[in-house]
Design goal:
With about 290 residues, the chain is of the alpha/beta class. It folds into 2 domains: about 10-90, no CATH class; about 110-245, 2-Layer Sandwich (Nucleotidyltransferase, domain 5), CATH 3.30.420. The chain is built from 12 helices and 5 strands. The chain has helices spanning about 10-25, 40-55, 55-65, 80-90, 90-105, 125-130, 170-175, 195-200, 225-230, 235-240, 245-255, 265-285, and strands at about 110-120, 140-150, 155-160, 185, 205-210. It has a 5-stranded mixed beta sheet. β4 (about 185), α8 (about 195-200) and β5 form a beta-alpha-beta unit.
Length: about 290
Amino acid sequence: MKKRTYDIDLNIVVEETFTFLRRHHVPKHWSRTKNEQYPVHLMILLFVLFCMYDKSLRRFAKIIKSSPPTCLAGINMPAFSTMFEAWRRIPPCYYRKLVRLSGRGGRDRVGALDPTHFEIGRPSISYCNRTKRNLMRDPNRKCTIVTGTRSLRILDGFIRKDHHRNGLNDIPWMLDTWVEGMMLAADTEFDAEDRFHQLVIAAGGKGVAPLRHADIPVWRTNGSRRKQLRRKWPGRTYHRRVLAETANSMLKRGLGSTLRGRTVGQQARHFFAKCFTHNMLMRCQE
């Protein structure tokens, strides 16, 4: 692999992924007759390896056929079109479920919330210079990721088509059982009593976000949770928020910063597959 953010043996990744899929009862076949030549576990594993190699699908199919991991040496690898059709059969919401399941089990007491941008195109610099195309204005997808600050696993993620939006719009769609008993640290963008703090408290956790204005006294501060933060600021909890930037950097440098796919659903599938791959790699390092 070209990018070496994750220094892990591929055989360990294969064994850990198969063990995880069996432990959480992921079905091996989607059809009722169970007549698929390649089981679902193998296809999900190939998607994980595809995210690790960060190559085109045709090149990845040639690489995995010519030099597969040692534990997969006796298995006949499918063609690239078979892999593509098999990955399309699994909806993005199921990959998101795998992300949530693989994010459990750590000793995380603080979750770091941070939005990040992924590219949806990868033009060369020479092409952009020749066509006078500005890379800074290329379309992208804004994704929100929650990272456990001890295990560095991704607890949950969310992606939407509209990239010109506030991160607070994703909060109602992300809060789930993983919030219970957890402190959720975010930046100033999430300083809102009704749209952030009260929703996190209703889910069983507590939010920590810097207040926008530092000169306002407590009696003029709106919201009970924001008043608590004004009286006593949890500095040790908020200082762990920067680990979200670490996870985002690992995700983009190690697995690529581009989401492959023409539609938003295909890009969401690739995004959740990257998050699931990241969690598998972090489990292998423990």
